[in-house]
Amino acid sequence: MGFRLGAEFLAAVGDLACFASADRLAAYAGLAPVPNDSGKRTGRLHRPQRYHRGLRRVFYLAALTSIRCCPVSGAYYQRKRSQGKGSKTALIALARRRLNVLWAMLRDHRPYQPAGHAITAPAA
């Protein structure tokens, strides 16, 4: 996520303490599917009608860019595609995953570390 998308994220979210969990933030951003069950029909999920479109755009564009720039994100996207998901569905799944990573980074006050590059404490 670059400077512009980061600024849009901060403008859309404001105080992160307003959200109790990453799931609440995902629901606010429209990245958490809601059930569309009725009668005998169950298990159908769809995008919520009320969500912050600007915040969804931020994570959508961040996921779109990360497919090309981040090999871990590209592999995740390709794995979702090989599972039979459509391109937009796989992209939204990647956006949700990036939201969870960003939430953890902000919660723990730690910079992003790609998988396999753990931060080690300095020797005393």
Output the strand order for the largest sheet.
1-2
Rounded to the nearest angstrom, the distance between the terminal CA atoms is 34 Å
**What is the number of beta strands?**
2
Mean pLDDT: 82
Percent strand: under 5%
Q: Characterize the main sheet.
A: 2 strands, antiparallel
- Helix proportion range: 55-70%
Structural class: mainly alpha
Q: Order of helices and strands, N to C? A: HHEEHHH
Number of domains: 1
- Principal-axis shape equals globular
Q: Count of helices?
A: 5
Rounded radius of gyration (Å)? 16 Å
List its salient traits:
124 residues; two-stranded antiparallel ribbon; mainly alpha; 5 helices
Description:
The chain has 124 residues and is mainly alpha-helical. It has one domain (3-32, 46-108). Helix content is 56%, strand content 3%. The chain contains five helices and two strands. The chain has helices at 3-13, 22-29, 53-69, 71-82, 87-108, and strands at 34-35, 45-46. The protein has a two-stranded antiparallel ribbon. Helix 2 (22-29) packs across helix 5 (87-108) and helix 4 crosses helix 5. The mean pLDDT is 82.
